[in-house]
């Protein structure tokens, strides 16, 4: 969903940019700048770190023991192409976006705070779903003791923050900029 919303905003930004080119409307220019800021923030805080995290974690766990993250039973309901759409294509598309469009990253402290907020919010949502349904949305969590879950969730948050920093460094390298 994050990737779909992000790339939808990218398309909207590109179309708005094309449609307002040559137009002297300061209001349209102001609105376009807001849209570009939203696109850049989403890339920095959500699309890149969460996208890279999903691909690396999903396929790492899948290779180790697919039943922990994507039970074979799901093959009967979710075709392989859709699985790759959710867990593979995210990475090349987000890298292509980073290479073709310069993104202005927020200050490091604001960016990391936003990434942490998202990670903690998502973890709380996963825990809430378990609380309400009694089922973990990720089968891996069924096999972890409460203490190990806390360590796991902490590690996940740290890893997503590392991916945020990797995205910032990669963006600066590609576009030869310094903070």
UniProtKB/TrEMBL annotation:
Keywords: Membrane, Transmembrane, Transmembrane helix
Catalytic reaction annotation: 9-(9Z-hexadecenoyloxy)-octadecanoate + H2O = (9Z)-hexadecenoate + 9-hydroxy-octadecanoate + H(+); 13-(9Z-hexadecenoyloxy)-octadecanoate + H2O = 13-hydroxy-octadecanoate + (9Z)-hexadecenoate + H(+); 12-octadecanoyloxy-octadecanoate + H2O = 12-hydroxyoctadecanoate + octadecanoate + H(+); 9-hexadecanoyloxy-octadecanoate + H2O = 9-hydroxy-octadecanoate + hexadecanoate + H(+)
GO cellular component terms listed in the entry, alphabetical order: endomembrane system; membrane
Membrane topology, record value: Multi-pass membrane protein
UniProt keyword rRNA processing present: no
Localization annotation: Endomembrane system
Family statement: Belongs to the AIG1 family.
Protein name per its UniProtKB record: AIG1 protein
Organism listed in the record: Brachypteracias leptosomus
UniProt gene name: Aig1
């Amino acid at each position: 969903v994050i990737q779909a919303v992000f790339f939808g905003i990218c398309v909207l930004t590109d179309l708005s940019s094309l449609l307002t080119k040559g137009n002297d409307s300061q209001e349209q220019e102001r609105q376009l700048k807001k849209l570009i800021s939203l696109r850049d923030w989403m890339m920095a805080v959500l699309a890149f770190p969460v996208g890279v995290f999903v691909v690396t974690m999903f396929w790492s766990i899948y290779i180790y023991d697919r039943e922990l993250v994507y039970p074979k039973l799901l093959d009967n309901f979710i075709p392989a192409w859709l699985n790759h759409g959710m867990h593979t294509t995210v990475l090349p598309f987000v890298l292509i976006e980073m290479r073709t469009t310069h993104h202005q990253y927020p200050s490091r402290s604001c960016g990391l705070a936003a990434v942490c907020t998202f990670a903690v919010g998502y973890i709380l949502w996963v825990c809430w779903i378990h609380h309400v349904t009694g089922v973990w949305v990720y089968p891996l969590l069924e096999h972890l003791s409460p203490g190990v879950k806390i360590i796991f969730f902490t590690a996940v948050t740290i890893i997503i923050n590392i991916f945020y920093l990797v995205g910032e460094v990669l963006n600066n390298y590609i576009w030869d900029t310094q903070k």
